Amino acid sequence: MACRSRLTPLIRRAAAPGLLRSATAANSVPCAARCISSTAARHFRGSALRRAKFTTDTYPEIKRDERFSHITAEHVAFFKGILGKESAILDGVTAEVSGDDMEPYNMDWMRKYQGHCKLVLKPGSTEEVSKILKYCNDNMLAVVPQGGNTGLVGGSVPVFDEIVINTSRMNQIRFFDDVSGVLVVDAGVVLEVADQFLAEKGYIFPLDLGAKGSCHIGGNVAANAGGLRLLRYGSLHGNVLGIEAVLPDGTIVDDLSRLRKNNTGYDLKQLFIGGEGTIGMVTAVSIHCPQRSKAMNVAFLGADSFEKIQQAFREAKIQLGEILSAFELMDSYSQNLVHTVRQNKRPLEGEYPFYCLIETSGSNSEHDAEKLGNFLEDVMSKEIIADGVLAENETQIKSLWAQREGIPECLGHWGGVYKYDLSIPLGDLYKLVDETRKRIEDAGLKGDTDDFPVVDVVGYGHMGDQNLHLNIAVRRYDKRVEEVLEPFVYEWTGKVNGSISAEHGLGIAKKNYIGYSRSETMVGLMKQIKNLYDPNGIMNPYKYI
Amino acid sequence: MACRSRLTPLIRRAAAPGLLRSATAANSVPCAARCISSTAARHFRGSALRRAKFTTDTYPEIKRDERFSHITAEHVAFFKGILGKESAILDGVTAEVSGDDMEPYNMDWMRKYQGHCKLVLKPGSTEEVSKILKYCNDNMLAVVPQGGNTGLVGGSVPVFDEIVINTSRMNQIRFFDDVSGVLVVDAGVVLEVADQFLAEKGYIFPLDLGAKGSCHIGGNVAANAGGLRLLRYGSLHGNVLGIEAVLPDGTIVDDLSRLRKNNTGYDLKQLFIGGEGTIGMVTAVSIHCPQRSKAMNVAFLGADSFEKIQQAFREAKIQLGEILSAFELMDSYSQNLVHTVRQNKRPLEGEYPFYCLIETSGSNSEHDAEKLGNFLEDVMSKEIIADGVLAENETQIKSLWAQREGIPECLGHWGGVYKYDLSIPLGDLYKLVDETRKRIEDAGLKGDTDDFPVVDVVGYGHMGDQNLHLNIAVRRYDKRVEEVLEPFVYEWTGKVNGSISAEHGLGIAKKNYIGYSRSETMVGLMKQIKNLYDPNGIMNPYKYI
């Protein structure tokens, strides 16, 4: 595709390989929460100042619920009887297990949360999950359902000695229909595995996120993961056709419909989507997969104000319509930090207060290129966009995406990041970043030297979904910074009727803040559901609501 | 758009005006359940043999739940106090009300179900709904939430003397955001009104169905209406962003989020989508609306087998991808009956066992026409499709759509129709029609003269959604026909893991058949939810589960 005359040509850059996503599929589109395997994460974080504290130290106010039993040798023997083989159990109760072996189950990949779990169970079937949960419920043993453990809010790791029930051995693709695009998988199937399977059939998984290489689909569904394809393909609430789950009393919720339409009663599966394993454990998922697009184009644009970015978004929806597959926002602060860390050449020659990345996916490359070209000429002639580049090949596409995806990693360069994942009505979306920056500056916390904890306050995110990632890059975690940020950010978000968790969920991180996004009535109704399904409270305790 | 050389040119036909949909919007795409206003429906059905029986006569086994109070003058006085004005109440308890005035609330538009209601309340606000429901709950007065009353399963009309709470006075568009496409409406806003409002802004309501001129959005959501845009825009479970509803105890469920992403707790609103007013009454809806497509193209194709139709569908998904907006199936039997009733010229010169209607919607007319043209050439050169026509203008588009949409009305020509709305895995989808026809023939029930009750057995539907409408056109309702059809149709559907109600819901029509699509466990879990929210059972009793 030729660059338009009014656009700056893209200069091909060799970005650091580690910062490029492993684009196994042509139009893979990772999310802000870049996946790094546990080992890689440890290595990455090893250079930072963050230490792996126990969650019980970070949150000393959380006390172990003494209704829960302590795990005994008898319990372990029972589980061994169910699971049969040694490899399905990691037993730190009756045997010695090294910390290294237990750590991947006790700690999240960001090394922010760490539990005291001593028993990991890896069932191989839904029936095994049912037996395990029934026994745990009968014996008041608390559990944590766990998939790939790639969450960002501590939802998939224990706090105290909860038993981890890990889905890694439930990893079969059960069914695929080549005509309807319906896929049925075990909860433990890795997202990228499913997507590669689908790619061979000409289909695409309607969810994509940075953690695709290690996250489990059951976990994605339990967390109601969002990611970038949401703009195009919608949320899991619409795409998931059926769920198989196990309730704490062992009941198997056999709601694994393969049908796109099924109006026979309450849509109970929806409670498990985004339920974060607090009312039951998802063991299989049926999902409607769309046709994979043959063509992908990416443009990177600079604009003089957030208002102009909003205009560009409106025009993109009108002019690109059905082929628009991503519209990502980045502010200059985020791009400056990426540049500082990587020392790479910027995509555009000039610098602008705001940037956006636009991706199109369609079935005809020429048509898409023409639409995108026309759109770019239009928004530049109307001076909505100040400058822009179009990627000419797959390498350049990756390179442009790296400017957006690289943000989370680059922000971590100085030591740590305070991360907020917010939904905010579009008109107000960037105001919060400006106001937060001003508060941090007014408090004298931001500066260029080690005397100041804060490096910068940046905003980026899935603009097409009103989803802002407000990030504060710091040299160290500092109570003074926290006091400036919280509850301010949550209060501000609550005032504009935003969501304090757009796509990351509640977990332990946001359990106490739900009141900023939900009324007392709603929280009360949610607790009613929790009590209905999990009256003993054994499912993923100390979290969510 | 020029017809391709290998395609039969479309001969412009003047279809009977009454059979053309009133296409107020360029790409309005009605569903099988064609909307007719109450008066029109009566007129239409007046020529048929169907009589308006009381539901209590059709289902003598249903007994009035004696826990419910009978409405007294005191109750009526209370409601008058809440609602203030006369026009908000239709009071057949303490005053005389003509049968004609009460009929639209007591009877569905198909005149299949009729209740004995004597009190209709039309609240003007959510608060009024809350006061009404709380009072009803406290006084054990059963209620039926009612929107436009366009359902097909008797879900929105009373059986005995339940109080109708009608949403017609709650008809304000509350909010629209031109950038995000988020629309918030009262439950009583008519679908077409909302869609016309959106059309002016360049947006489209992500749901369309034949009843759009009279159905209420609150009712659409309560019924989880499907329709034709589902193939393109997905289901209401994905598009509805928020709901305001009132529980029987008067609690206002204030879950009216305007955000595309909001991962803060259980997604309770989903229980009201498709809940058919059995756990609460929807009073407002927030919904994500997509960009309206500027271009629409329609093709009508003939094929020699159902296998070839499936191949055409697969190719359409691949080649038309993001612009495919409808793929509708019609068998020769349905088209023959349309032709017999209308005596119109058929779209294709030859006759084929199967037909499909393909619609595309996109942002660039030329691109779309090229894609569709290439697709048609391809499927004809591969002999997947035997013949086809492309519409060249809006009139021809309407005319082709009339071949599909006209089916339900034409089938009613002889007196009545047994209608089944089923989801069936694609490979098996048409087998049921063949088997049903054979059973009817074997029983000696089908023939060309008045001696035979059955005119024909036809299949059509939303192929793209695996949604079959199996219809049996009859000269009269006949117990022998019913015995051949039921439980056979439901058993067959259950055996292939289909759904006995794809998009019409359960209502009273399918309450007793849910077991064919849902396990005892699932039905038990649903009853648990019903009991949780409506322990007195006052919400829309005698229906659903």
Automatic annotation (TrEMBL), chains A, B:
User: Where found, per UniProt?
Assistant: Mitochondrion
Record-level GO cellular component terms: mitochondrion
- The answer to keyword Glycosyltransferase applying to this record is no
E.C. number? 1.1.99.39
GO BP annotations of the record are: malate metabolic process
Arranged from A to Z, the UniProt key words for this protein are: FAD, Flavoprotein, Metal-binding, Mitochondrion, Oxidoreductase, Transit peptide, Zinc
User: What GO MF terms are annotated?
Assistant: (R)-2-hydroxyglutarate dehydrogenase activity; D-lactate dehydrogenase (cytochrome) activity; FAD binding; metal ion binding
Under InterPro entries, the record lists: FAD-bd_oxidored_4_C, FAD-bd_PCMH, FAD-bd_PCMH-like_sf, FAD-bd_PCMH_sub1, FAD-bd_PCMH_sub2, FAD-linked_Oxase-like_C, FAD-oxidored/transferase_4, Oxid_FAD_bind_N
* PROSITE patterns according to UniProt: FAD_PCMH
Q: Does the keyword Calcium apply?
A: no
Q: What is its main location?
A: mitochondrion
Q: Write down the chemical reaction(s) this protein catalyses.
A: (R)-malate + A = oxaloacetate + AH2; (R)-lactate + 2 Fe(III)-[cytochrome c] = 2 Fe(II)-[cytochrome c] + pyruvate + 2 H(+)
Cofactor(s) this protein cannot do without:
FAD
**Highest taxon listed in the record's lineage:** Eukaryota
The segment(s) forming the FAD-binding PCMH-type domain are: 113-292
Task: Look at the named UniProt entry and state the broad enzyme category this protein falls under.
Answer: oxidoreductase
Query: Which family would the database say this protein is a member of?
Result: Belongs to the FAD-binding oxidoreductase/transferase type 4 family.
Q: What is this protein called?
A: D-2-hydroxyglutarate dehydrogenase, mitochondrial
